[in-house]
Design brief:
alpha/beta; Quinone Oxidoreductase, Chain A, domain 1; Rossmann fold; seven-stranded mixed β-sheet; 18 strands; globular; binds nicotinamide-adenine-dinucleotide; binds zinc ion; NAD; ADH-like_C; oxidoreductase
């Protein structure tokens, strides 16, 4: 059985999304059909629309979905209709990284999340004329009223949590928070800097406070974001358009930070961020420039100071464990990520994208209304 759906479709490179009717096939194997309540819009959706990453178009993007399970495939064990779920990235569950608990580095990550179909290239969505639309984006394609996910990327969340808010936990927010808590393992009393105070960078700021860092520095070029960073736990802010950020950070910390996260995606910011590390400092890289982009750093600066640079996907999150933890921290008032969010009806997806690009909205969430 297929379901009539409404989807926001990325039709061609750099062009606005179009809202259209389509059909989605029913769940098979370990798939679940989810009625999408709301989906976050992430920078990654826009760089795919603009073809930094070669996902075939036209496609239904969207990868921060939250919704209610409507139907489950025959091999689903732990989810049932009515469950509230947050949709996260796809991982095969069988490869070496997956069995080691590192699904974010799944050997099939690109195919499962950016392939535009399943690993065999099959799609599940057809437009009204019966032509396939590329889908399976992050194993969900949740810019649609209904989405198919697999049991292992549909994460059950408590019924008393505000479902329409939770989708961004599936990507941008778990990326920033997980980078701090799971990957860098920021320690109590340490000095942390977030290069970029967007949705990812500010999630890192909130997580650094949860982790007990004593100095938390937010770096950005947008004053309103730096203001919000202070509200969320930054002890210092640096506007890198106005001052030399490396000098400013060395002044604040008396030498450099212990931990840093780069989420701007700009190689020159990364280069500066590495310089702003203190002795034995470690930096996580999550900002995503176009494929093939190279970065530079001073090799002796790295080795003589014992610094570490590492790439991080999805905050090394094991979503089944980490997403419910973030929900709990939110419910306790210790991780107020609702302050990043602005809601839009899905029909205003292009306004939401524009607001995000211009820096007016940090984390747009698109709402779907169901009859
Ligand atoms: P965003 O656009 O909200 O945040 C980027 C921030 O960087 C903005 O606040 C912007 O003002 C700031 N910035 C830009 N140029 C700067 C400069 N020269 N100096 C200082 N600040 C500058 O985006 P986001 O949603 O926070 O995502 C951040 C990045 O992380 C994106 O590249 C996104 O694709 C990537 N991402 C990666 C993963 C992963 O798993 N690695 C997951 C989600 C997102
Ligand atoms: Zn895998």
């Amino acid at each position: 059985m297929s379901t009539a759906i409404t989807a926001a479709v990325a039709r061609a490179k750099g062009e606005p999304f179009t809202i259209q009717k389509a059909r989605l096939r029913g769940p098979q194997d370990d798939e679940v059909l989810v009625r999408v309540v709301a989906t976050g819009l992430c920078h990654t959706d826009l760089i795919v629309r603009d073809q930094f990453y070669p996902v075939p178009l036209p496609a239904v993007l969207g990868h921060e979905g939250a919704g209610v399970v409507e139907e489950v495939g025959p091999n689903v064990k732990n989810l049932k209709p009515g469950d509230h779920v947050v949709l996260t990235y796809g991982a095969c569950g069988y490869c070496q990284p997956c069995v080691g608990g590192h699904g974010a580095y799944c050997s099939h990550f690109f195919g499962l999340n950016f392939g535009g179909g399943d690993l065999e290239g099959r799609t599940a969505i057809e437009d009204e004329e019966g032509r396939p639309l590329h889908d399976h984006f992050f194993a969900q394609s949740s810019f649609a009223s209904h989405a198919l996910a697999r049991e292992n990327n549909a994460i059950k969340v408590p019924q008393d949590a505000p479902l329409e808010l939770l989708g961004p936990l599936g990507c941008g927010i778990q990326t920033g928070a997980g980078a701090v808590i799971n990957s860098l393992k920021v320690t109590p009393g340490s000095r942390f800097a977030s290069f970029g105070a967007g949705a990812v960078g500010l999630s890192a700021v909130m997580a650094a406070r949860v982790a007990g860092a004593s100095t938390i520095i937010a770096v950005d070029i947008v004053p309103s974001r730096l203001e919000l960073a202070k509200e969320l736990g930054a002890t210092h802010t640096v506007n890198s358009r106005e001052v030399d950020m490396v000098e400013a950070i060395r002044d604040i910390t008396g030498g450099g930070v212990d931990f840093a996260l780069e989420s701007t995606g700009h190689p020159q910011v990364l280069a500066g961020a590495i310089e702003a590390l203190g002795t034995l400092g470690a930096i996580g890289v999550v900002g995503a420039p176009p494929l093939g982009t190279k970065g530079e750093f001073d090799i002796n600066g790295l080795l003589l100071n014992g610094r570490t640079i590492r790439g991080i996907v999805e905050g090394d999150s094991v979503p089944q464990r980490f997403i419910p933890q973030l929900v709990e921290l939110y419910q306790q008032g210790r991780f107020p990520f609702d302050k990043l969010v602005k809601f839009y009806p899905v029909e205003q997806i292009n306004e939401a994208a524009e607001d995000s690009t211009r820096g007016v909205t940090l984390k747009p969430i698109l709402r779907f209304t169901h009859a």
